[in-house]
Amino acid sequence: MGVDQRASDALAPIPGIRIGAAKAGIRQREREDLAVFELAPGTQTAAVFTRNAFVAAPVEVARRHLGAAAPRYLLINSGNANAGNGAAGVAAVEACLNAMADAVGCRADQILPFSTGVIGEPLPVERIQEALPAAFESMDSDGWAAAARAILTTDTRTKGISLVAEELEVPMRITGIAKGSGMIRPDMATMLAFIATDAAWEPDALRQALRKAVGDSFNCITVDGDTSTNDACVAMATGCASMAPITLADGQRYRYAAAALKQVCQDLALAIVRDGEGASKLVGIRVASGRSTKECRAVAETVAHSPLVKTALFAADPNWGRIVAAVGRAPLEGLDIECVSVFLEGVCVFERGRCPEAYDEAAAARVMSADEFTIRVELNRGAATATMYTCDLSYDYVRINAEYRS
Amino acid sequence: MGVDQRASDALAPIPGIRIGAAKAGIRQREREDLAVFELAPGTQTAAVFTRNAFVAAPVEVARRHLGAAAPRYLLINSGNANAGNGAAGVAAVEACLNAMADAVGCRADQILPFSTGVIGEPLPVERIQEALPAAFESMDSDGWAAAARAILTTDTRTKGISLVAEELEVPMRITGIAKGSGMIRPDMATMLAFIATDAAWEPDALRQALRKAVGDSFNCITVDGDTSTNDACVAMATGCASMAPITLADGQRYRYAAAALKQVCQDLALAIVRDGEGASKLVGIRVASGRSTKECRAVAETVAHSPLVKTALFAADPNWGRIVAAVGRAPLEGLDIECVSVFLEGVCVFERGRCPEAYDEAAAARVMSADEFTIRVELNRGAATATMYTCDLSYDYVRINAEYRS
What sign does the dihedral A217-A223-A224-A226 (CA atoms) show? Predict the structure, then answer.
């Protein structure tokens, strides 16, 4: 039901949402680095933020505003995270929001701010204020692609997807965009995601569906194990489709709508890993037959974060010993490694404590040379499963992160 | 009291220990890759092994033998880890030990085996057996430097230290060697360490002192967060010095001896980080004024493992935002980031939620450009401290680990 999530030029407008973008010159001249969203009155908005104790000023303000009023606007900038700036950081956000509120005629607490970029540099408030009129002028229901570009930092490509879920009484349109490339890990990544639908949602239902969708998507990906001060995922339901609001009591109807939201989050999450800093591969780590989802997830995370596994992925080297060593150091009770099996797609590389006699290294190397594949770990001691997505660790990861500020 | 731990040619013999080395051609021709240790009768031996659930065959056998008999010999090879080989791996170790037992006239369970190198390739038993006579022939009390070379894998230099502790009734000599470079992390690293002293120790005292020394040294270093299947640290006390055995009841005497053992472990541990795969810097992460050692350690580990911090170390970029973001995602209860301060040596880079007004980036960059320095994090909510040592993440880390098997 979706379009290719990389084809963000094909992103479908969502009735009730207008988007503008402008060049504020925050970090680089000559690129869009500011985006504004206008939400139709009555839009329900839910958001999930970073769990890092070190949160950026815009996250602090956005959380407060979300609790105080129904958002009518989003203000998003890239190039500067406005994190680690103390009280001055909060004052900077408020100065931007006040200017915007005056210009559009709303209260400042009806605007949610989002920033991404370098930590610890003062937000260039004046440049943002000066660029606001151009952003408003460009506001259009077709602004998704421009916003997808404006929110990028070290990303190499835009990330967006549009879906139409047909299972409800009227078609439910959803469009989402995201940014994120480094600093990605469970419990929210350095990422921003903005998702809108024309469906009508009860606030509780939207919040719960978003939380679940994020848990099954953005919290299942890792690029480098780091988290950010600015992560946020926002879902906006304009209710412009003529339908009764989706509620938690709706049963099947809620499940259909939540599944569509999750689908968008998962596609955006995988797009982030595919564009992981320096990444050339998207690799699923599927851990099965564990005692609990938690233990499967612990194994999947340990493998997904292992620099030795990630450099082997980069080299397309079926060095299964590194995978098994990562499984072996996962924090599990009484794991008997003799019972564990490991597969590269269909190729068994480890069982009964060793590499099988019939192991075909050439076949394993062929699997590893693909752009996308799955490492499957069978714990053989239960019925639970969990999947994480990771990418390889390459020279370019080091280059990008060693040169980011220069 | 020590010599430079990099000057392993100056390693002092330990009365009661003879060491031989030979070229078995296990992975590379023309280098020593086999070492044998002969321990005088009556030598007390203690060992700490990897906590990875995936353990190599030699670890399994060494643990069993250590429980069964007083070791008289060690047999060590590099180039092949003999891990992930199932029952055939154990049979391979036993074949080597049986040949050695026949040659030297002891029981096989009086020999402890150790292997390090590639996981999952069959141990070349015959080549090892064939090289044993040459190893025995070269046995000498001066063999430490040769053994230090023979145990290396991706290491770029040998690691050894000799100390003489003068605080006891007679001088206590200690010499130790280690290998390890990648796959290093808390809870034992991919490392082997062999430490001998001529002091006499009660077994319990030696075991406890070794366990404590390893906890304060090898378990405080990280290169890439990975652990190995083969890690082991062995302490051998020959008792050739004319002294009564050191016991746990000895008080000050035990503390002096244990401190000397710890000193050797710490020097070897730092030598391993200095030689971390691709590392150009040794960086201490000192976390102070925490509520407990455990929480200080959790913060230190999170910072020490962060790929974003480690690439900033490589770039000598005082990107303190990455350090604070790593502190912020450490698994701590109710951390108020406003109370946290961060210093690069003497330069404060973060306090009261922001970079100080008086911050001097040039001074911070000077600190970061040194080969060795300390990042200090003050949690300002208790009296506990912990220190971890890490290195930078460079292009060479990726190169070494992407090419290791080729």
Answer: negative
Tens of pLDDT, residue by residue over B246-255, are: 999 999 999 9
Distance CA B365, CA B369 (A): 6
Q: Are A341 and A349 in contact (CB under 8 A)?
A: no
Report if pTM > 0.90.
no
Cβ neighbours of A53 in B, within 8 Å: 327-329, 332, 335-337
Residue B28 exposed, middle or buried by CB count within 10 Å (0-12, 13-18, 19+): exposed
pLDDT tier, B9 (very low <50, low <70, confident <90, very high otherwise): low
Burial of residue B268 (CB within 10 Å: 0-12, 13-18, 19+) is: buried
Q: Which of B386, B394, B398 is nearest to B303 (CA)?
A: B386
B201 φ, ψ (degrees, to nearest 5): -130, 140
In angstroms, the CA B212 to CA B215 distance is 5
With an 8 Å Cβ cutoff, is B207 touching chain A? no
- For A137-228, where are the E strands, in sequence order? 159-165, 172-179, 192-197
Angle among Cα B302, B305, B311 to the nearest 5 degrees reads 125
Question: What length does chain A have?
Answer: 406
What lies within 8 Å, CB to CB, of B166 at 6+ separation is B1
- Apex B92 CA angle, B17 and B272, nearest 5: 50
**Tokens 């078609």, residue?**
A171
Write out pLDDT tens, residues B117-138: 988 899 999 999 999 999 999 9
Residue A391 CA to residue A184 CA, distance in Å, equals 11
Contact B86 A353 (CB under 8 A): yes
B190 among known catalytic residues: yes
Distance between CA atoms of residues A204 and A246, nearest Å: 10
Please give the C-alpha separations between residue A182 and each of B87, B207, B353, in angstroms, as whole numbers: 42, 44, 23
What is the signed CA dihedral for A61, A63, A69, A72, rounded to 10 degrees? Answer: 70
Instruction: Count other Cβ atoms within 10 Å, centred on residue B137.
Output: 10
CA-CA distance, B160 to B147, in Å (whole number)? Answer: 10
Distance from CA of A320 to the nearest CA of B (A): 8
SS3 category, B288: strand
What is the percent of chain A where pLDDT is above 90? 82
B267 and A CB contact within 8 Å: no
Do A59 and A229 touch, CB atoms closer than 8 A?
Answer: yes
Task: Check if the beta carbon of residue A184 is closer than 8 Å to that of residue A272.
Answer: yes
Residue B189 predicted with pLDDT over 80: no
- The answer, yes or no, to whether residue A323 has pLDDT greater than 80, is yes
How far is it, in rounded angstroms, from Cα B82 to Cα B128?
Answer: 13
Interchain CB distance below 8 Å, A53 and B337: yes
Of the candidates B284, B275, B269, the one whose C-alpha atom is nearest the C-alpha of residue B231 is: B269
Residues of B in contact with A88 (CB under 8 A): 354
Q: If you ran DSSP here, which 8-state letter would residue A220 be given?
A: G
Q: Is the pLDDT of residue A6 over 50?
A: no
B340-366 burial: b if 16+ Cβ within 10 Å, else e = bbbbbeebbbbbebbbeeebeeeebeb
pLDDT of A5 reads 40
pLDDT band at B224 (very low <50, low <70, confident <90, very high): confident
- Its sign, for the CA torsion B130, B132, B136, B142, is positive
Among chain B residues, the shortest Cα distance to A359 is held by B120
Per-residue pLDDT at A60: 96
Nearest-CA residue of chain A relative to B304? A226
On whether any CB of chain A is under 8 Å from the CB of B245, the answer is: no
